[in-house]
Design goal:
The chain starts with 7 loop residues before the first strand and ends with a helix. It has a 5-stranded parallel sheet with strand order 2-1-3-4-5. With 131 residues, the protein is an alpha/beta fold. The chain is built from 6 helices and 5 strands; from the N terminus they run βαβαβααβαβα. Helices cover 43% and strands 18% of the residues. It has a single domain, classed as Response regulator (Rossmann fold, 3-Layer(aba) Sandwich), CATH 3.40.50.2300. α5 links the parallel β4 and β5.
């Protein structure tokens, strides 16, 4: 891959998933900067305070305290420059067709993918959304 992203964020409460998804991102070699947030609250805190805005976010739906949908509701309230150039991909184990339908209706969600994240999926996302 020759195109590198500034930052990629994983938002998922599952430590094992984050480990494997981070490995897939490193293998795809699309960024030097991977931020892992284990909750929607942690992700919002990062996005509101850090000068580095992720180019790409992989977001889980089912998380305790603040799920993916609740995160998106709060995310939509962030200042525009905190959201600039971001592609959000809902990455989940949910097989519920209603979740996918809901994701398709949300302007901040670009696509809906089933876990686990693979190197091939990462490369496909890069080709599709970051030409």
């Amino acid at each position: 891959m020759n195109k590198k992203l500034n930052c990629v964020m994983l938002i998922d409460d599952d430590v094992d998933d984050n480990f494997f998804h981070e490995m897939a991102l490193r293998e795809a070699d699309i960024t030097e900067n991977i931020k892992v947030a284990e909750s929607g609250f942690e992700a919002l805190d990062f996005l509101s305070k850090e000068p580095t805005t992720p180019d790409l976010i992989f977001l889980d739906i089912n998380m305790p305290k603040m799920n993916g949908w609740e995160f998106l509701n709060e995310y939509s309230k962030l200042e525009t420059e905190k959201k600039a150039k971001m592609v959000i991909i809902m990455l989940t184990t949910s097989l519920n067709p209603a979740d996918e339908a809901k994701a398709k209706k949300m302007s901040d969600i670009i696509t809906f993918k089933t876990k686990p994240l693979t190197t091939e999926m990462v490369e496909d996302v890069l080709k599709t959304y970051f030409k």
